Amino acid sequence: MARVILAEDDEAISEPLARALRRDGHEVAVLNTGQGALEVGSAGVGDLMVLDLGLPGIDGIEVIRSLREQGSKMPIIVVTARTSDLDFVVGLDAGADDYVAKPFRIDVLLARVRALVRRGSSPAIIRVGEMVIDSAARRVRVGDNEVPLTPKEYDVLLLLSQNVGKVMSREQIMKEIWRGEWFGGSKTLDMHVSGLRRKLAEAGVGREPTIGTVRGVGFRMEEIPAASGDQSARP
Ligand code: CA
């Protein structure tokens, strides 16, 4: 159960959605303006926000930016009829965690809400430097370049990226990714890691993440300090 802030000005969408969220066990507050969403969001009374980008008054993107500037870590799912890649990127850059394009099926949105509630404040979108992992879509890009990964490479990258700065031992990685199906030596893991390094470097724009080797132990996704002016440098 979560306290969901639903910011949507179209009652044909908000009414059935609020009903479905309540049926799913959530408490729901419905707001129909950007100002309202921002006020309730700022009050820190919500666990999660479902946010329409096209709201009267303050635009949804501005709502996200303001909340993030205030330090809010509340997961935000953007709901938008704007489906161009640019809008998607702008929403994520502003600090949204996930997005659903309109028109959407209610059960799809409910599943996204459940997933974000389960993950708590651990987002569906993970950023390390210029790399963005969209864990809902299992897609990775560095800057504007999509990184083509095999399923196992993706799993290894996600695990390391969820633990930036921490050493993950070979045993931990194998257990998490291959579960009971690990029959090979650790050479296979080395192959996946070197494949990852090569693909990230190829897609790189100078601030791609680096996977470090910790001799005798395992691997670590190195931290990348935030660059000043990073947000404003983007289109
Ligand atoms: Ca709208």
Protein described:
The chain has eight helices and twelve strands. It is of the alpha/beta class and 235 residues long. It folds into two domains: 119 residues, Response regulator (Rossmann fold), CATH 3.40.50; 109 residues, Winged helix-like DNA-binding domain superfamily/Winged helix DNA-binding domain (Arc Repressor Mutant, subunit A, Orthogonal Bundle). A five-stranded parallel sheet has the order 2-1-3-4-5, sandwiched between helices. The protein has a four-stranded antiparallel sheet with strand order 6-7-8-9, covered by helices on one side. α2 packs parallel to α3 and α6 crosses α8. The longest helix is centred in the last third of the chain and has 17 residues. The site of calcium ion has 5 residues, from loops.
